[in-house]
Every structure is written in C-alpha cells, then in structure tokens.
Amino acid sequence: MNAGFLQTPVAYLKGVGPNRAETLQSELGIYVYQDLLNLFPNRYIDKTQYYKIGQLQKSNAEVQIVGKIVHIKTVEQKRGSRLVAKFIDETGEMELVWFRGQKWIRENLKLNVPYVIFGKCNWFNGSFSMPHPEMELLSEHEKNLRIHMQPVYPSTEKLSNKGITNRVLSKLIQQLFVETKGSFEETLSNKILDELKLISKSEALFNIHFPKNQELLAKAQFRLKFEELFYLQLQLIAKNMLHKQRIKGFNFDQVGPLFNDFYANHLPFELTDAQKRVIKEIRADLGSNAQMNRLLQGDVGSGKTIVAVMTMLLAIDNGFQACLVAPTEILANQHYIGIKELLQGTGVTCELLTGSVKKSVRKPIHEQLESGELHILIGTHAVLEDKVVFKNLGLAIIDEQHRFGVAQRSKLWHKGSPNSGEVGGATPPHILVMTATPIPRTLAMSLYGDLDISVIDELPPGRKPIKTVHRYDSNRLKVFHFIKEEIQKGRQVYIVYPLIQESEALDYKDLMDGYESIVRDFPQPQYQISIVHGQMKPEDKDYEMERFVKGETHIMVATTVIEVGVNVPNASVMIIESAERFGLSQLHQLRGRVGRGADQSYCILMTSYKLSSEAKTRLETMVQTNDGFEIAEVDLKLRGAGDIMGTQQSGMLNLKIADIVKDNTILKSARYFAMQLLKDDSTLEKPENLVIRHFYAELAKFKNIWNYIS
C-alpha cells in the first residue's frame, strides 16, 4: 500500500465519520490513516484460553468463556435497577450483570445462541458473576480477524464517554487492514532484514495489532522499535555529516609556541589520561577543515576548564581570538579569575565582559577586540550584543549549554571572521559546548547524536572522593556538632533548602525557618552566616556570595541557586535539607559545590523518616557513588527520558513504540547499522538502499537532503 493512501483523513475510514474523527484528533492526535496504524497497544490480554464455568477460581482474574444466555430479568434496587442474565455452559451457570445501558442491551441480547464473553469474575453469595462483560456472538468471533492476544489501546475519559471503547478502536484498525489489504511498503533494506532476521513491515504491523502468540508479538515489537530508532539515528548522523561537508571551519593547522610553552612551563598539574584524550579529539577537529561542533561532558571537578584554556591557546597560536560564554555573572567571573591566573606570564590578553561592567571599561575592550589585541573574551550574554565585534573569532566555548537558547547560540555563530566566509558573510567559529551535567550515554546518542561527544571520565589525582552520608532529622544535634568541628578547623559549610516559604501542603523545613534555627545554634559574633535565595535582588545575592567566597562568612544558607557555579575550595561540608525532595542530578550538582580543595569534604543528606521507595533509591545511589555518569543512568531509569530532557527536548524524539531507556540495546544496534550504512553509501543511491532513501525523505519531508551530501 503506498504511503500516500495512509495520509487519507481518518474521517473517511468506514466506522469513523466526522464526529468520531474530531474526538480521535483531540484525544489521541489521530488525523490520518497512518496515525491510526501507529496507535500501538499499551498491553495485551491473553485470549488463547477458553475457560469452563466449572473451572473458575475465586481470583478476580479476567477470563473468556463460551456459553448461552437462557434467561434475562430486571432486578429493582434501592437506587435504580440492574439487568441480570443467566449464562450457562455444560459445566455450570453464572450471572451476567449490567447497571448501565440496560434498555439497549436487553433489546439486543439473543437467548440460546452461543456467545463468547470476556471480563472479570466476582464471587458473591456462593456463585460467580461478571459485570458488564465484553460479548460477541461465537459465529462473529470465529469469523473476525483475530485475536488471541487482545490489544489494549491508550484511552481517555472523553473517548469512553463518546463510546470509543477499546473494542471500537480495535475494529477501526481491523477496518484499516481490510482497506489496505494488510500490505504496507517495506522501509528497511534486504541486507538489514537478513542480517537481523527481521520480519517484514506488513507482518510486523499485523502482529503488533493482532498477534497470534507471544513469539510473533516479540518479533513485531523488535522490528518496529529497531526501525524507529534506526531512522532517528540516521537523521542525527546524516545531519552531522552534512554539517561537516557543507560548513567549512578555520583550519588550525599548527600547534604553536603558546600551546607548547603553556604545556611545558605553566600547567599547574599533570593532565589526566582522559584530558589528554579529549584534547587530541579537539585538535583533530580543529585541523580537519570542517567547523567543530563538539560537546564536552565532564563531571564536576573533572578539569574541563584546563581543556578549554588549551583549546583557546590553539586558536591564538593560529592567529585567531577565542571567547567563553557562561550563564551567570558569578560563573563568568570565576572563569575569568581562574583563566587569568593560569595564563599569567604567557603574554595572552584576557578580559571580562558582563552586564555590570562599566561603560568606561567596556570601550577599551571593544576597541581591543576589533583591533585583535585582545586574545580572549570571557563573559555572560553581554558578549552576544551586536556592538561586540571581534577581528577574527575562531573559537567560541559555551559553558552549561542548556542555559542558552537557540537564538543566543546563533548570535555567537555569526560573530566569526567577517572577511572570510559563507554563513551570513562570515565563517562560523569552532564551537565547544561544555556541561557538568552528566548525560547518560543512551540519551546522548539520541539527543546529541548530531554533535561529536568527548567525555572526561576521571578526576584529577589528589582529589579525595566526597564522603556522602544519609542522616534523619533526629540526628540534627550530632550534625550541628560536626559542623562546629569543621568550622573550628577553618572550613566553610553550605546548608541548602528546597523551599523559600513554608508550604502548608508539604511537611518540609523551609529556608527562613531553617535560617532562624541556624542563627540560634550558631550565634554571632562567633559565627557569621550568609543567606542566598532566588527572590533576592541580584546585587544582594552577589554581595552575600562574595562574602562567602572571601571567607568572611562560615555558613551559606541557600536554596538551589548555588547549584551551578561557585568555586569555594575552602567549603568542605554540604548539608542538603529535605534531600528526598531533590532529584538525583540536582543532588549530584549540589554535592559538587564541595570537594574542590585538598581537604576531605562531606555531603550530608538530611531527611524525615517518611521516604518513598524511589526516594530511598536516590539516597542510596548518592551514598554509594560519586560517579556522575552512574548517577545519571539511575536517574534515567527512575524518571525516564521525557522528564530529564524537559518537554521541549523530549518532543524531539517523539517515539511511538521505542523507549530509549528500556530499549537501549536496540538503540545501540540501530546506531551501528545507521553509521555503517552512511559510511558505505553516504547519499543512499545504491539500488539496495533506495527503499531507505525513499522512506527517509517521506519522514524528513525534505527530499533534497541527500543532494548536499556527496
């Protein structure tokens, strides 16, 4: 059946009509035949077995029975009435009961004619009854396209109220198979079908809706999941190839004196093997004539900044400028201080540009940027303003990329060297995106599959793992005693709360209440306390942060505003109040605020005794491991991809049957086959791959995409 026929509006399918079509659209997003075909069942009821009334158990299970109705009566109740039918087979009798729709049912029931009934059995007053059974004449049941494993489709209250039951949906899909003659175009090549021993597309679609047994159902599910993930990966890999072939980048062909001098004489510590590997990957990109688009993942404290600095030196050695953009002033300031210190004595010029930099200071920065005297600019969104013009920007580094929108990244893209290029009159700078939020491998393959990904997966030597413990509220006095001991040693402490104001609905300590109790237990002048939360003015927040960074205060009481950014090596204790309220990735990010100095650091997770099983799993995971990637994998299993990515990003996947968490083995296989296919035939022009090319073009609605890849 050709793909065009499947774009027929669903209203034209026999049994639908305009009213039902409207409900199917609003409730299930079904507009055309294709959408109905892709309405895959949530689960299946095994109807391979027929029970006898004499075999029934008092188990409340769903059963299927063949028998006859021999008598019908209406029984009056305190409120209304019920319709009761006596149903028999050769082994016994039972009652069928209806509380709604009695008139229609009574008129349509046939006496002494074999029926197949299905439903849950209740045991009451010494006999079995089945309320509101599904019923079908045995003669119809035997004729129907069917049905040993009955599919159960997604449903809503509105669908039920409009009479679009599971049985109706199943009949509509049967009608669709009648109209298409169950024949659908193949979407995978014979090579892939043979190599993976996959069933055909037509068989898969039939057996996903009307499986004859468990084995055929499993084959259908595997085939359709593989296909969905294969085309997702094909799209991402093709996009990456397209980018590399169409968009040329500056060629940083030399490793010059600045890089070599810094490596030999200014590097404050030996690079880890992971850092060396990542720098090699970046160097290969920068010398490839294609524009680099690389995601650098590294856990908190893994040493991404030093990799960024060395990449910037490669740009400067090749006659280009570099910039680093951070999401907040505090983070930009921190990068500036750290990078300036690292580059002392190298002759490299570096300036800071944020919203609070005065106009008198901005003017010389703008002039030095345009003349090329300024090598590195570090800043916030202020760097993206139109009046900020580079002489020859060759490298842009974005820290915590998820905090920047598409439009903001596009502005950075267009700040490339204006004298040389293609995109908007400029060659785009090489882009390095850094994130301290570990992304599970399965998610990275599906969300960032069009970027090249580098991972720093080891911490610098000498860093002591943070000791994490879980304590209940009843241990609070001991925890306070421990805090006082740490402060006496000259250390600083974070105490983080999940709420700003008390919530009546939730029994959690809020920030202000917590702050007051901390002040009571840690009185001035012996102890100095800062407080920071999201409702404060930015200047007040920065002032309190600065006091803590300078060591003027011992304790920082805060909400999660401190999650990303501040580097205070002297802070060695992180207390997280009501830790059960935080997600795993948030707990891990908060823990990463400590452990930045040489001293042993601690993270104490405080909770009440009331914990859900999921909260227990989160806390146990935090206590057992410091590995952000391990934590991210557990988080993905607990929350699923949609929650982790947020609605906006999870919509990118829009998967109908596959689940990238549960089906990650199929995902890896799909990525491997997509990669091999494009390596062997990048334009999909070989005769054996035309079926894939055609279906991909249908999916992409962009039939010329392959013309750009040659």
TrEMBL record:
It is an enzyme of class 5 (isomerase). Residues 475-642 form the Helicase C-terminal domain. Transmembrane segments: none annotated. It comes from the Bacteria. GO terms for molecular function: DNA helicase activity; hydrolase activity. Residues 285-456 form the Helicase ATP-binding domain. It catalyses: Couples ATP hydrolysis with the unwinding of duplex DNA by translocating in the 3'-5' direction; ATP + H2O = ADP + phosphate + H(+). Its EC number is 5.6.2.4. SUPFAM superfamilies: Nucleic acid-binding proteins, P-loop containing nucleoside triphosphate hydrolases. Keywords: ATP-binding, DNA damage, DNA recombination, DNA repair, DNA-binding, Helicase, Hydrolase, Isomerase, Nucleotide-binding. Plays a critical role in recombination and DNA repair. Helps process Holliday junction intermediates to mature products by catalyzing branch migration. Has replication fork regression activity, unwinds stalled or blocked replication forks to make a HJ that can be resolved. Has a DNA unwinding activity characteristic of a DNA helicase with 3'-5' polarity. Belongs to the helicase family. RecG subfamily. This is ATP-dependent DNA helicase RecG. The lineage of its organism: Bacteria, Pseudomonadati, Bacteroidota, Flavobacteriia, Flavobacteriales.
